[in-house]
Amino acid sequence: MDPEELLPLTPAVFHVLLALADGERHGYAIMQEVAAGTNGRIKMGPGTLYGTIKRLLEIKLIEESDERPDPKLDDQRRRYYRLTGLGERAVKAEAARYEAMVKLARGKRLVGKLTGVALAGDF
Amino acid sequence: MAAYVKSKAVVFSEKLYARMLAAYPKAHREEYGPSMAQLFRDQCRDAWGEARSWALLKLWLRVVPDVIATSLLEHCATLNKRKSMFNRTLFGRLATPLYTFFTVFTLVFLLVLGASVLITNILPESFASTARIKVEPYGYRTPTQTDPQQTQLAYDPYFIQTEIEDIQSEVVLRKVVEQLNLNQKWGRKYGNGSLLKTYDTLDLLKRSIDLRPLRSTSLIEIRAFSSEPEEAAKIANAIAEAYRVHHLDVNHEWTLSRIKVLDNQWNEQNAQLENAQQDLEKVRGKIQVPTPAPAEDELLATYPAYAKAKRQLDELRQFRSVLGMKIAQERTDLMLPKNVPDEIIDHAVPNHRPVRPNKPLNIVLGALFGIVLGSIAGAGVAGISFLRRRNSQTKSDSPPATGLQV
């Protein structure tokens, strides 16, 4: 499938894919990564996070890796997720789309230098 | 990581959230419920560590709307999935077109049936009355082969048909119009109160009667239609009577004309007879025939010229005698016709049951027409719907382009 066909991604999807771009993570780690990546402005609830994960699994943008306990947390087994090839291409395509939009906005002097402000809005 | 001691608030929150998971569809709950509960526990732990109860409250303020929104979303997704799966089954593929077919069929059927019932009830009622008349042929009578004294009428294969046309003739119907005063009566009914012209009334009258022969009989059925049962009966009876009188008149005229011809012949014959008498007297004086005249044989031998003239006179007298008998017979026929007069077998009586519109027939025809039209319309709409669904389903089978709504 052409990842371009999936664009534009919703903010929640994009943030989850971004969070998994560095490697496989479990749900709590994804949530933490999203919160860290947006300076704490976006904190995904369990419903939103697992709803997003469910849909991403259905269209095979992410896949589940083997369950294992996270030694840093409690001893319960956690489910880990990682990007698929399609997911990686999709998040890159979406990032490129945002980049083009930012360039366009910058050309119109609507934004200054890039800051660490999150691109996405509220959920 | 060091173990932390859970407060009652955290324990309560975890339990409450676990119960709130019941808001999600069963499949989603079974698949992701434990992970969601675990994530919530992690968030509770972080919140408690961050600012205790205050942070826990803020967490709840985020989680409650999250649960409401996402549980609704999951239910919608589950319903859509079920619908999609149902539509992929054979029954599912057929169910919607069948439903469409029966919906359209029912609507069209009821519409047509309702219209036919409405029209049938709106249409003005028409009543019929029937009179039957027995018609007898008239005209030249010829002696029969077996008995020359008996006469018979020549066979006419078109007799009944001719009489039917005769009944519808202006001569007969005009009498009916006059007798029933139809110009005035129908003028009030059809002519906005003004008097109708006779030819208009005749046209209406012709269209409101139906004549038919009864097979293997010399009977003709006169059927009249009207919006009033009494009027229909009057018209049928008046036509039958007018035709009967007309037939008698024609027969009478026919006999009178024959008598007139015979009278003329009688007069001519008298003149010839007179001349023959005078000729005979002249011959007698000329050849001196004695009085009384001799016998026939002697007369013929002695006075042949006189005998010849006498024979001619006798023949003329004989012919005049036959002519006189014929005239007498025709005069008797005039008073007592040999032909049997036409007879009205059945007089029309008012029939209060309308014949038009035929309500049961109209409704049955309306129902049949509704079935046909409903089937065509239903099949058409269902077919189009099926094709559209198939096309859209083919599209939806491919992965969604932007279907990642969360």
Structural write-up:
The complex is a heterodimer of chains A (123) and B (406). With 123 residues, chain A is of the alpha+beta class. Helices cover 46% and strands 14% of the residues of chain A. In chain A, β2 and β3 form a beta hairpin. The two termini of chain A are 27 Å apart. The C terminus of chain A is likely disordered. Helices cover 70% and strands 8% of the residues of chain B. Chain B contains eleven helices and six strands. In chain B, the strands form two sheets. A four-stranded antiparallel sheet of chain B has the order 4-5-1-6. The chains are: A alpha+beta (123), B alpha+beta (406). Chains A and B meet through α2 and α3 of A and α2 of B.
Please tell me what the overall shape of chain B is.
Answer: rod-shaped
Largest sheet of chain B: 4 strands, antiparallel
The helix tally of chain A amounts to: 4
Please tell me how large the radius of gyration of chain A is.
Answer: 15 Å
Q: Structural class, from secondary structure content of chain A?
A: alpha+beta
Layout of helices and strands, plus pairs?
The complex is a heterodimer of chains A (123) and B (406).
Chain A (H helix, E strand, L loop, with lengths): L10 H10 L4 E2 H11 L8 H13 L3 E8 L7 E7 L1 H23 L16
Antiparallel strand pairs in A: 1-3, 2-3
Helix pairs in contact in A: 1-2
Chain B lengths: L7 H13 L5 H63 L1 H33 L4 E8 L6 E3 L7 E3 L5 H9 L2 H11 L1 H9 L7 H10 L1 E5 L5 E8 L2 H59 L8 H7 L1 H32 L7 E4 L12 H39 L9
Antiparallel strand pairs in B: 1-5, 1-6, 2-3, 4-5
Helix pairs in contact in B: 1-2, 2-3, 3-11, 5-7, 5-8, 8-10, 9-10
Give a short overview.
Chain A has 123 residues and is an alpha+beta fold.
What attributes characterize this protein structure?
heterodimer; A: 123 residues; alpha+beta; 3 strands; disordered C terminus; B: 406 residues; two-stranded antiparallel ribbon; 11 helices; 6 strands; 70% helix; 8% strand; rod-shaped
